[in-house]
Amino acid sequence: MSKHCETGLDGRCRDADGEIRHKRGDTLVGTLRDEYGSNFAPGVRSDMRLDTLLEQSGANSLSDYLRNQNK
């Protein structure tokens, strides 16, 4: 069950102060697959943490990773 969040014009979740909500580094790839689809981070274990995935892929953020994954 996902929590409701306020969205801006771009549809992204925002904190109470209007800043775009960032995923925590300890978020698991399996959790991200629930949100971004089963093709998110193919070949990566579902129990890998986001911060480890970003480090191994050389991405600076989840947005950066998603941008580069679709190339």
Compile the SSE list and pairings.
Elements (H helix, E strand, L loop, with lengths): L5 E2 L5 E2 L14 H8 L13 H8 L4 H8 L2
Antiparallel strand pairs: 1-2
Short account of what is shown:
With 71 residues, the chain is mainly alpha-helical.
What do these coordinates show?
By secondary structure, the protein is mainly alpha-helical. The protein has a domain at 23-69. It contains 3 helices and 2 strands; from the N terminus they run ββααα. It has a two-stranded antiparallel sheet. Strand 1 (6-7) and strand 2 (13-14) form a beta hairpin. The radius of gyration is 13 Å and the shape is globular.
User: Major sheet: size, sense and barrel closure?
Assistant: 2 strands, antiparallel
State the helical fraction: 25-40%
Overall spatial form: globular
Order of helices and strands: EEHHH
Strand order of the largest sheet: 1-2
Question: What's the tally of helices?
Answer: 3
**Beta-strand proportion:** 5-15%
Number of strand elements: 2
Mean pLDDT: 81
- C-alpha termini separation: 31 Å
Rounded radius of gyration (Å): 13 Å
Alpha-beta content class: mainly alpha
User: Which regions are unreliable across 5 or more consecutive residues at pLDDT < 50?
Assistant: none
